């Protein structure tokens, strides 16, 4: 379970929700304060151990098998098995555009090479 928090919801997030989720047996509870209004490190997580939430210090969401880190006002999610970042939609769109441009360049090179080879073959006849 995760939530975006702020100074205005601090007490509810830190006390009521945390206690409720702990009693419900929610394995992890993460608070993200993108502005750093009351969580200086901006991200704080708790992991259920022996029915009591303990502060998460390893930056790992075991429930999802992901590493979590603050990246500006966003969260970066990383696969723990490969370290690969899970891209957000804007990053995916940028990567797709880059890959399309690369493919276009490769296609253009292939076409130029094919044309060169056709000319060379024609000249050898």
From TrEMBL:
Species the sequence originates in: Brunnivagina elsteri CCALA 953
Source species, domain of life: Bacteria
Cross-referenced InterPro entries: Nuclease_put_TT1808, Restrct_endonuc-II-like, Uma2
Pfam families named in the record: Uma2
Domain Putative restriction endonuclease: 4-56
CDD domains reported in the protein's UniProt record: DUF820-like
Protein name in the entry: Putative restriction endonuclease domain-containing protein
